[in-house]
Specification:
Layout (H helix, E strand, L loop, with lengths): L14 H11 L10 H14 L9 E8 L15 H10 L4 H9 L1 E9 L10 E3 L17 H20 L4 E7 L4 H12 L15 H18 L6 H8 L2 H15 L4 E3 L2 H13 L7 E3 L6 H9 L16 H19 L3 H4 L6
Parallel strand pairs: 1-2, 1-4, 2-3, 4-5, 5-6
Helix pairs in contact: 1-2, 2-12, 4-12, 5-8, 5-9, 6-7, 6-8, 6-10, 6-11, 8-10, 9-10, 10-11
């Protein structure tokens, strides 16, 4: 199956508008640079949106759900049945992502990319199922190449659809028991770090299971021999459908000049796949936070992304992404509403 994913056209952000934004930031009633990263957020948004005065964006977070055959190896503290149960909880508005998204003023969209369960038609659930979970990557490829590409296309399509619906900022989230295992495998293969250096404790496994989890990842990489220079090969052999969908959302959003606030470990694995398909994606990504998962910062550094928050989070769902959105909004409000020295009649530094 041929794909044109590597040929996705992504324009660079506007350096001119970033410079203009910096000029306005420097005449606001504060010492130059005193609002730190908040000022950096504004400059980047000005460059992404190609305007000197970005509007407050309409926001949506996508929680992509999928199951993983590697759970059969005993790598998670929770059974696979928790995935559909938690999807239903999110749809009912009872999960952490729902609470935090309401606080951030973001809508929540739940996408079934590959859950091993057939949901009834439900308001708020988008059915894009690639397969009923991946295969056990410790014994062979998690997905076919065709399934991997199809999973990426889920996210690309949603990016275009939600741009047309008026959304101007996306967040990424995930739900899938066992998905820290393929995420660690992706991190290891692409960054070249040993599995032990990028594999954390996921849902809270003990030392014995953690050691076993590392060996399962090493086995999966040995069995499948994913090509580190071919991100689609990596995704198909040791990835997951929701990870592919996150990659696609990042690609599609960058293509349509929409910033994406990525969540934690799993979301960053998806963003890493997108980055390896087209490094221009990186100009449109905001790293919502630094996860407790040890491999997370390894992937962020590979993409040269600085995390906004460091709160020892490891939940997923998109929680870190929507929390970071509130700070990005804060920077933008400062930029739009704060008085300049001239407007306030305040003397500038001599």
């Amino acid at each position: 199956m041929e794909t044109t994913l590597s040929k996705i056209d992504i324009a660079p952000v506007s350096v001119e508008h970033m410079k203009n934004a910096q000029a306005r930031l420097d005449i606001l009633t504060k010492p130059i640079g005193s609002l730190g990263m908040l000022e950096e957020f504004v400059k980047r948004l000005a460059g992404i949106y190609n305007t000197d005065m970005p509007l407050m964006p309409k926001k949506v977070v996508f929680t992509f759900a999928g199951d993983h055959g590697v759970c059969a190896e005993g790598v998670s503290a929770f059974p696979a049945e928790v995935t559909p149960q938690m999807v239903i909880n999110i749809l009912r508005g009872g999960a952490a992502i729902n609470v935090l998204a309401r606080h951030a003023g973001a809508d929540v969209v739940v996408v079934d990319a590959g859950v091993n369960y057939d949901f009834p038609v439900t308001v708020g659930l988008i059915n894009k199922k690639v397969a009923h979970g991946t295969k056990n990557m410790a014994k062979g490829p998690a997905m076919s190449k065709e399934e991997a590409i199809k999973s990426i296309e889920i996210g690309i399509t949603l990016a275009h659809e939600y741009k047309e619906k008026g959304y101007r900022m996306f967040g990424t989230g995930d739900m899938g028991i066992g998905n820290t295992t393929p995420s660690a495998a992706i991190a290891s293969v692409i960054t070249g770090k040993p599995a032990a250096q990028v594999t954390g404790r996921g849902t809270g496994i003990d030392d014995k299971v953690h050691k076993h989890k590392i060996s399962v990842i090493e086995m999966a990489i040995s069995v499948n021999k994913p090509n580190s220079s071919d991100p689609i090969d990596v995704l198909s052999k040791v990835g997951g459908a929701e990870i592919g969908a996150i990659a696609g959302l990042c690609l599609g959003a960058a293509q349509r000049a929409i910033p994406v606030v990525i969540d934690g470990f799993i979301s960053t694995a998806g963003a890493l796949i997108a980055y390896c398909i087209n490094p221009m994606v990186g100009q449109y990504l905001f790293a919502g936070h630094k996860s407790q998962e040890i491999g997370h910062i390894v992937m962020l550094e590979f993409m040269k992304l600085r995390p906004i928050l460091d709160l020892d989070l490891r939940l997923g769902e998109g929680t870190g992404a929507v929390m970071a959105m509130t700070l990005i909004d804060s920077g933008l409000k400062i930029y739009r509403e704060m008085a300049t020295f001239q407007e306030a009649g305040v003397s500038e530094k001599e």
